[in-house]
Amino acid sequence: MNRPSSEERPQAAAAQPATAAGDARAPLDAAARRRRDRAIVLLLGACVAIGPLAMDIYLPSLPAMAAALQTTPALAQATIATYMAGYAIAQLIHGPASDRWGRRPVLLVGVAVFAAASFLCAAVPSIDPLLWGRAVQAVGVAAGMVLARTIIRDLYEREQAARLLALTAVMLGVAPIVAPLIGAALQVAFGWRSTFLFLGAYGMLLLALLLRYLPETRAAHAGPSPALREAMRQLASNRAYRVNVACSCGVMIGLFAFLAASPVVLMQIGGLSVLQFGIAFAAIMAGNVTGALLSARYVMRWGLERTRIVGAWLVFAAGVATLLSGWIRPHDGVLVVVPFFAYMIGFSLTMPQVTAAALTPFARLAGLASSVMGLLQFSVAAAAAAIVSALGDGTVRPMATMIFAGAAIVMAAAWVARPVREPDR
User: Could you tell me how far CA 160 lies from the centroid of its own chain?
Assistant: First the structure.
C-alpha cells in the first residue's frame, strides 16, 4: 500500500512538539510545554517584529533626515530601496547557513548585525553611508524573519506549528501599527537619529534575551544537508511545498499591491487627510492581528487544511469585492477599506497554515525551505507593487485588479493543496 505524503499522513501527535535530541526538543509535561510555548512566541515574535519596526519607524523622520544630511527627498527615500535589496539577498544566506551551522548562532549573528548597523545609521554624517547602513541593517532583519519560521518547524508539527506561527504573527501585525507612532514621538522629542538609536537598543536587548533563553533547535540527528542543487531539487519536486508556497505568494501579491497604492487610492483618490489615512491604514492592519488571533484559536479545533481553506475563501471573497468596487466606483478609493480589512483577516488565517504545511516535509532543509519561500514571496510581491505603481491611472482599478489576481492564485492553490485522504485501512 502506498504511504501517504508528508502533507497527507495522519498526525497522531500534531498537538505535541516534535521530539528529537536536544534540550529544546525533549518531551515536556503540559505545564512546561505551555511555558516553553509562551517563551518561543515572545522571543520569535520580537524577532519578526524587527522587520516592520525597521521599515516603518523612521518614515515620519524622512523629511527631517533629508534636510539634516543635506540631500534630496528622493535619496532619503532610496534608503527604503537599499533596505529591501539587502533583505532580499540575505534571505538566501540565513536559511542554508542555519541548516549547516545551527539556528542559534545564525540568528544571534543576524541580530548582532542588525543592532550594530542601527547604531551606524544613527551616526552617519551623510546619505551615502546611510544607504549602505540600511542594507546591512536589513541583512540582520532577514535572519529573524527566516529563522523564526525555521525554529517553529524544528519544534512543532503542522497544526501546532501553524498555531505558534499565528501567535508570532500577532506581534508582526502590531509592529507596523505602532512603529510610525513611536517614530513620530522620537522625532518630535529627540530628532531623526533617535529612531536608529532606538532600533539599536532594541536589537541589543533582543540579543541578550536570545543568548539567555534560546536553545539550539536543529535536531542533532538531522545530519548534513545535501548539496544545494540536490536540495533545491527536493524542494521543487515536493507537491506540498509547491502549492503552499504558491498560496503564500498569492496573499503577498494582494498585500503589496495595497501597500504600494494605498496612499494614492485613499488620499488622492479617496480624499482622506493624512490623519484619516493613518487611522484607516491602522484599522485595515488590525485585520491582520484579528486573523492571527482567530488562526491561533481555531487551528487546533478545525485542523490545518480547514483553516487554510476558510482563509483562502475569505481572501477570495475580499478580492472579488475589491475588484467590483474598484471597477464600478473607480474614483471612490474609500470603498476598499472594508473589503481589504476582510482580506487581512483571511491573510492571517492563511499564511500560518501554508507556512507550516510547506515546511513540515523538510527536517534537514527547513532553513533553505524557509529562505526560498521568503524570497519567492518577496519577489512576486515586489513585482506586483511595481506593476500597480506603473499602471496607476488615477483610479482604483489597477490596485483592485492586482488584489483580485492574488486572491485568485490563493484560492486555486489552496484548492489544489487539499490532501487526498486514503480510505480507512
Answer: 18
What would the DSSP string read from start to end of 314-338?
A: HHHHHHHHHHHHHHHSTT-GGGGHH
First to last CA, the chain: 10
Give the 3-state secondary structure of residue 156.
Answer: strand
Q: How many CA atoms lie within 13 A of 85 on its CB side?
A: 11
CA distance 75 to 69: 10
pLDDT tens, N- to C-terminus, the chain (425 residues): 444 444 433 333 333 333 333 455 555 666 777 777 788 888 999 999 998 899 888 878 888 888 999 988 878 878 888 888 888 889 889 988 988 888 999 999 999 999 999 999 999 999 999 999 999 999 999 999 899 989 988 888 878 888 888 988 888 888 888 888 888 889 889 999 999 999 999 999 999 999 998 888 877 555 566 777 888 898 999 998 999 999 999 999 999 889 878 888 888 888 888 778 878 888 898 999 999 999 988 888 898 889 999 999 999 999 999 999 999 999 998 999 999 999 999 999 999 999 998 988 887 888 899 899 988 998 888 888 888 888 888 899 999 999 999 999 999 998 887 763 333 33
Output the CA torsion sign for 6, 354, 229, 215: negative
What is this structure's pTM? 0.80
Q: How many CA atoms lie within 13 A of 417 on its CB side?
A: 30
User: From CA 60, how far away is CA 183, in angstroms rounded?
Assistant: 6
b/e map 377-396, b = 16+ CB within 10 Å = bbebbbebbebbeeebeebb
Give the dihedral sign, CA 303/306/312/313.
negative
